[in-house]
Design brief:
alpha/beta, about 30% helix
């Protein structure tokens, strides 16, 4: 009951020994994630004891001494890791992703924000050529509740369920998870809102469509670009499961960048209204607020209008 990330995933953390890496590795462990190592060439050979009590979540998370490797390749060779979470400064993100792809990592979750666009273009293309899926950059990661958490999404605001969620916005990912906490999710994927991302709405729609335990899909978009319009066309042609949507930015002023680097509106292109209309035209129910969106999800699950 998941896409991309399961309890079987073996997770490395690039930048684990930094402040953010330490904090979120502890949270991932507390969520039951099988974190098998960190990567830092300057601290190779050490171990970090996160001492995460099992009682925090009841999902695992026994006290964990995590080894630090000098390279991703070494970590993969020793542990069999197939996922990496990247917590490195923007200037080093491209090299970190290339290293992960060269090591044969199947999924790289790039949390780092502020990465130059030309670097994102380069490493997403390179990773694709090596068979590595990128989530992000500038994203909260993804979580399969009750199984594993790769990134910074809070693990304690939802539970396993039958709804799949794909979102540009980290904050709205958390809000919808909380709004539907009694319903639960198969997997929640925060794809990031930068102009260049490795995994798109369409990629996640396809994966959720093929997942037998995802009954309904929630798609969260935002102003700027045409990703949601392209997703609408894909839904029309390929998705048979019900989809509920929400678009952030109805009150955004024209011609101004809002939040994510890609969220800019020019004329009618990229507006929340245009995206809403495109989705509704293919049968997607679109809420005007996150709370209304949650109500639409519940109604759809119950077979209501």
């Amino acid at each position: 009951m998941a896409i991309y990330l399961t309890k079987e995933s073996k997770v490395l953390v690039q930048g684990m020994t930094g402040g953010e890496g330490m904090k979120h590795t502890r949270r991932m462990l507390a969520a039951g994630t099988n974190v098998v190592g960190g990567v830092n060439p300057r601290k190779a050979g050490r171990t970090v004891d996160f001492d995460v009590p099992q009682c925090l979540t009841g999902l695992g998370g026994a006290p964990s001494a995590i080894p630090v490797f000098g390279s991703v390749a070494e970590g993969v060779e020793v542990t069999g890791a197939d996922v990496t979470v990247v917590f490195v400064p923007p200037a080093f993100a491209k090299a970190a992703v290339v290293e992960a792809a060269d090591a044969g990592i199947g999924l790289a979750v790039v949390i780092t924000e502020g990465i130059p666009v030309h670097d994102s273009v380069a490493f997403t293309a390179y990773a694709r050529s090596r068979g590595t899926r990128i989530i992000g950059p500038n994203c909260p990661g993804l979580i399969t509740p009750g199984q594993a958490n790769a990134g910074i999404i809070p693990a304690d605001i939802t539970k396993p369920g039958r709804v799949g969620l794909v979102s540009k916005s980290g904050t709205l990912t958390y809000q919808l998870m909380y709004e539907l906490r009694d319903t639960g999710f198969s997997t929640c994927v925060g794809i990031g809102g930068d102009p260049v991302v490795g995994t798109t709405h369409i990629d996640c729609l396809a994966a959720f469509q093929d997942d037998p335990d995802t009954e309904l899909i929630v798609l969260i978009g935002e102003i700027g670009g045409d990703a949601e319009e392209r997703a609408a066309a894909y839904i029309r042609d390929h998705v048979t499961k019900p989809v509920v949507g929400y678009i952030a930015g109805f009150t955004a002023p024209e011609g101004r960048t809002m939040g994510h680097a890609g969220a800019i509106v020019s004329g009618s292109s990229g507006t929340a209204q245009a995206k809403k209309e495109a989705l509704e035209a293919v049968g997607v129910r679109v809420g005007n607020t996150p709370t209304e969106t949650a109500r639409l999800v519940l109604a759809a699950l119950e077979g209501g209008a």
